């Protein structure tokens, strides 16, 4: 899909002193949280993982807020304006099952092994080569994704408030740098909890007033069915193999490419998300973190999908040559048309909060991986704890500056969401296949992790840049190409890992305790904390409840 990223210049909002006051109060609170969190930072564990002391409800809300960035707000609304109810796939099949899998299956390995990062787990399971490569790949991906959020914020602020892009990028980068440098991960997490509620306060009025403007859900459905066809208001219509649909993907590539490979690759290995769970106070809280986040994730789709659908009704030619508005203009257009002053200030603040949350999640995970997995293990080893805290603050500043640079790189891509999905297929999918085989196959050798990462990343890039971009095989859209790249990366990584394992020595069994399914470690066998016996504190019940609820939500939109 190819909707331009830049917003229409005429979408200038009628903001006044009330809106700017709300925005100013938000920034003051953000910095205040950073100063308050600074008092709790005494060790590197405090700075990078909040001392593993946070309750599940805090880490759960931070987990979902960290994902509420550029793709969620602008990208998914644009996706809905262009493709309709197909957007539900990115939530009910492309998120919930993987979040449940992370909580029930993978968090006991992550938390029980006491690792500080996702790449560090590969050091324990495989060898230094796999660890260093995965650390480097993740550090690059984190900076690129942080830059996407910064660029998305800049184009929104330029279009809505009239600020130059470079001013918006520098101002937002400064505030993220300030509160992460002051309070470390705790500051980022508590700000993400605040940002979660600010984002909801922004999206709910847009959704409610937007529905009202088109005659409710029935009026919305009737209008779009008449103008775009019946499949536009269904999630699976037109996805049969050999059938044509705007998404350029059939049910098989949706289920395997998005629902399995891309989804599981992102949610289970992306340290920007997993880091929130690792900061929880015990294993039960760590497991419940992604499961608590799964419940609002089920319903957030309506807050980004409905505005996109409403925009498609109010501006029938949106995204075409006959309109000045592009798909990415959906939410800003509704803000301009529907929101009064005051509520408008909350909406603008919510958009800024969304982009800052996405950027902060990636910057905080970047400083952890670079400091603990690269600097402390391979460059400067054995220094006092205070040194690594100081270095963590320094590398945070460097990460923010690098993100500003990659923000301008993101401007060369026509669509934010397609760009991010491309990055996920390159970086997250190969890491996922290495993790999943390493966790469930004892015979996977120490050398197989490194070569699996190489093969998976290479295959995904070859598919995208050569097979798709050079037209070797006709794939209808960027999103369809991303799904195929993800499948290619997964298959190539898995095949190479198996082949290498058959010809190289496995890791000794005694070194696999707590790292492979069927083995245990002391951290994985911890007794439940007082009160954890309650049903709503049991990860298995929460996980299956989220899956059932997501499946039930699919039914009204299926066909």
Task: Tell me briefly what this model is.
It contains 20 helices and no strands.
What does this structure look like?
This protein has 559 residues and is mainly alpha-helical. It has a single domain (4-415), classed as Sodium/glucose cotransporter (Up-down Bundle). It has helices at 17-38, 44-49, 56-67, 70-83, 89-93, 96-112, 118-125, 128-161, 165-213, 216-228, 251-269, 271-278, 283-314, 330-338, 343-379, 385-410, 416-440, 448-468, 478-503, 539-554. The longest helix has 49 residues, at 165-213. The protein is globular, with a radius of gyration of 23 Å.
Distance between the termini: 23 Å
CATH architecture grouping: Up-down Bundle
The tally of domains stands at 1
- The CATH class label is Mainly Alpha
Oligomeric status of the shown chains?
single chain
Question: Radius of gyration, Cα only, in angstroms?
Answer: 23 Å
InterPro entries: Na/Glc_symporter_sf (IPR038377), Na/solute_symporter (IPR001734)
Family: Belongs to the sodium:solute symporter (SSF) (TC 2.A.21) family.
Transmembrane segments: 20-37, 57-78, 90-111, 132-157, 163-182, 194-214, 249-269, 290-315, 343-370, 391-413, 419-441, 448-468, 480-503, 540-557
Protein name: Sodium:solute symporter
Strand-helix topology:
Layout: H1 17-38, H2 44-49, H3 56-67, H4 70-83, H5 89-93, H6 96-112, H7 118-125, H8 128-161, H9 165-213, H10 216-228, H11 251-269, H12 271-278, H13 283-314, H14 330-338, H15 343-379, H16 385-410, H17 416-440, H18 448-468, H19 478-503, H20 539-554
Highlighted features:
559 residues, Sodium/glucose cotransporter, 71% helix
